[in-house]
Amino acid sequence: MTSEEIKNNIYKMLNQLDEKSLSEVNDIMTDYLRKTESKEGWDSLSEEDKAAIAEGLEQIEKGQTIPYDEVRKRIHKKLFQQNMHRLPTHISTFL
Asked: What mean pLDDT is predicted for residues 41-52?
């Protein structure tokens, strides 16, 4: 099917739609065209972000990883220490 035939088929289908359906198709097409025109994925990242990702992948390949449970413990400990000053004195002495 040629480009001209495809366009004619689309036009015929659009011509048969009621106003509500036509509006929905317009929204779908607008969203689609907006997404394809904008940068997506890897190309939208800064050079700094790309370098950080590459570094992380190299670390994984070298086995330089931290187990998930250890990361959770570290985050919990850090958050706990940061929020310790917010506790009333009489409670924080028991912790």
From this structure: 86
Contacts of residue 53, defined as CB under 8 A and 6 or more positions apart, other chains included, come to 45
Q: What is the mean pLDDT of residues 80-95?
A: 60
**CA–CA separation, 35 vs 12, rounded Å?**
25
Is the Cβ–Cβ distance between 14 and 23 less than 8 Å? no
**Pairwise CA distance, residues 7 & 94, whole Å:** 75
C-alpha–C-alpha distance, residues 94 and 87, integer Å: 11
Distance CA 47, CA 54 (A): 10
Predicted TM-score (pTM) of this structure: 0.39
Reduced to 3 states (helix: H, G, I; strand: E, B; else coil), residue 30 is: helix
Average pLDDT value for the chain: 81
Dist. CA 79–CA 60, nearest whole Å = 26
The residue length of the chain stands at 95
